[in-house]
Amino acid sequence: MKNLLISFVIPSYNEEGNIQPMIEALSRTMTFSRNLYEIIFVDDGSTDGTMDEVREAVLLYPEVEYISFTRNFGKEAALLAGLEYAKGDAVILMDGDLQHPPDLIPQLIRGYEEGYDQVIAKRNRKGDAKLRSALSRLYYWGVNKAVDVELRDGEGDFRLLSRRAVDSLLQLSEGNRFSKGLYSWIGLEQKTICYDNVTRQHGETKWSFKQLLNYAVDGVVSFNTKPLRLCFYAGLVSLILAVAYIAVTLVDIIRHGVDVPGYFTIISAVLFLGGVQLLSLGIIGEYVGRIYNETKKRPHYLIRRTSAEVKGKPLSHAKIRSS
Ligand code: UDP
Ligand code: MG
């Protein structure tokens, strides 16, 4: 089998202290491999010493490259930039905090050599807070009922993608990217490798509860319009109930005359219908907001500098390569 070029894409936002250990860990695992590799750090507008460490690394290691954003555009944008600039026959996406164990890399590459287009490293939830794991489990149960693609708990961005998978992902140009769903949407042959969850060594997680909640909503509304259908049904059911209630009450009034007490029923009906309407409006709003964002057609990220400034040769971009 021919020697492969493996591209590691590492989104990094304030990962000071993790850059050097990350490069060392990757070099260690790749030493015994006959394959070539490149490590692309995508600096997502870090405000600490991450970029200094990355720039220093570029001078020391010829296989290290970087792309640095003008500000924080989010992990999804960083992953996309990495995929666009990766030249490899296969691309491995990894977090920059060593939570994705480099020991699994040989297994990921083996999966690729066996012919799989996506080799997914799946983590369990060992060491995670109980409440967070329970909420996640509940979420995945619910979301899989709601969306058309299959999302699996523990299967995140840590995975190997073949060139074919990368090119397929790059064809999906939507502004609101929800990678977990996109990986599933492109299909292709997949293999899963399980590993024990690792807790973070340096720095802290960038996900607040609010961000996780937003991510959860993205997961549902990015992939279909079923929630809109749900609003329709909820509206229909309340309408039928309301009509039935009016009919029954009307018959009652005709037979027994007007009855004054009715405060409770009126208030409940108003509150219930108000709730259904607000919820429906909110869901519609989510979709309208997305349409608004898509129509602006803004780029997913802006680049301030790349390792070309240190190396003197430009990084190659997928669109430019293929034209
Ligand atoms: N990250 C990023 N941009 C962001 C937030 C996170 O590039 O706005 C990177 C971060 O540097 C790390 C990866 O995404 O490499 C995962 O982030 P984190 O460890 O905070 O998430 P968690 O592991 O807690 O889910
Ligand atoms: Mg992490």
Task: Tell me the name of the CATH homologous superfamily of the largest domain.
Answer: Spore Coat Polysaccharide Biosynthesis Protein SpsA, Chain A
Low-confidence stretches: none
CATH class descriptor of the largest domain: Alpha Beta
Radius of gyration: 25 Å
Number of strands: 8
Considering DSSP H and I runs of 4 or more, what fraction of the residues is helical?
40-55%
**CATH-defined architecture of the largest domain:** Alpha-Beta Complex
Query: Given the structure, what is the number of helices?
Result: 12
Q: SSE layout and pairings?
A:
Layout: E1 5-12, H1 19-31, E2 36-43, H2 50-60, E3 64-69, H3 75-85, E4 90-93, H4 105-113, E5 118-123, H5 130-146, E6 155-162, H6 163-171, H7 179-186, E7 190-195, H8 209-221, H9 226-256, H10 263-296, E8 303-306, H11 308-311, H12 318-322
Parallel strand pairs: 1-2, 1-4, 2-3, 5-7
Antiparallel strand pairs: 3-8, 4-6, 5-6
Helix pairs in contact: 9-10
Bound molecules: uridine-5'-diphosphate and magnesium ion.
Magnesium ion binds next to loops.
Summarize the structure.
This protein is of the alpha/beta class and 323 residues long. It contains twelve helices and eight strands.
Q: Could you explain the architecture of this structure?
A:
- The chain is elongated.
- It is built from twelve helices and eight strands.
- It has an eight-stranded mixed beta sheet, with helices on both faces.
- The protein is an alpha/beta fold and 323 residues long.
- It has two domains: 5-208 and 298-311, Spore Coat Polysaccharide Biosynthesis Protein SpsA, Chain A; 226-295.
- α9 packs antiparallel against α10.
- It binds uridine-5'-diphosphate and magnesium ion.
- Uridine-5'-diphosphate (UDP) binds next to β1 and α3.
